[in-house]
Amino acid sequence: MILPIVAYGDPVLKKKAKDIDRDYPKLDELIDNMWDTMYNAYGVGLAAPQIGLPIRLFMIDPAPFAEDEDLTAEEQEQLKNMRKVFINPQIIEEEGEEWAFGEGCLSIPEVREDVFRKPQIKIEYVDENWEKHVDTFDGLAARVIQHEYDHIEGILFTDKLSSLKKRLIKNKLASISKGKINVEYRMRFPNAKKGR
């Protein structure tokens, strides 16, 4: 089932999410619905707060980035086969020299800005089968994970922009929170006028 994606301005996006246990109600169904929602919106990642749930759960499938011709064949292959669910994740390390990349977000449509992040991360998490992992990711995969991880920490990519950039997009963000935007997927707007 395709769920509405929560738009910028909703308080759930600024909350630090809570861990869950394996008895979380209808978790398998929730994960299936999140995949449906993410693919319907042509996303490469989706975190539970983006569908209104302040829990430490996100998923990624960076396969669309595999078509980037600047990547090595090995990097392309890695991205194609990286569909993953992260439950109760903890980033243990972030390493390397920060690099900029134009990021967007399903909760903040039509806004793309360069965000600086470290190129390599080590993360501990359990998957949808409650198997524990400690994995290292780099490049675009690490970036997608860091973006989604920020969501469960109550951080948006716009929080990482300079004060000048934030001022330049302020009106656009206000329009998004009021629902004054056309998107091709279901969204829930916190400040939309009733009767829309």
From TrEMBL:
It catalyses: N-terminal N-formyl-L-methionyl-[peptide] + H2O = N-terminal L-methionyl-[peptide] + formate. Its EC number is 3.5.1.88. Its cofactor is Fe(2+). It holds the Pfam family Pep_deformylase. The keyword Ligase does not apply. Fe cation binds at residues 105, 147, 151. Coiled coil: none annotated. Keywords: Hydrolase, Iron, Metal-binding, Protein biosynthesis. GO terms for biological process: translation. One of its GO terms (molecular function) is metal ion binding. The keyword Metal-binding applies. CDD domains: Pep_deformylase. Binds 1 Fe(2+) ion. SUPFAM superfamilies: Peptide deformylase (SSF56420). The active site is at residue 148. HAMAP family: Pep_deformylase (MF_00163). Removes the formyl group from the N-terminal Met of newly synthesized proteins. Requires at least a dipeptide for an efficient rate of reaction. N-terminal L-methionine is a prerequisite for activity but the enzyme has broad specificity at other positions. Belongs to the polypeptide deformylase family. NCBIfam families: pept_deformyl, PRK00150.1-3. This is Peptide deformylase. It comes from Christiangramia flava JLT2011. The gene is def.
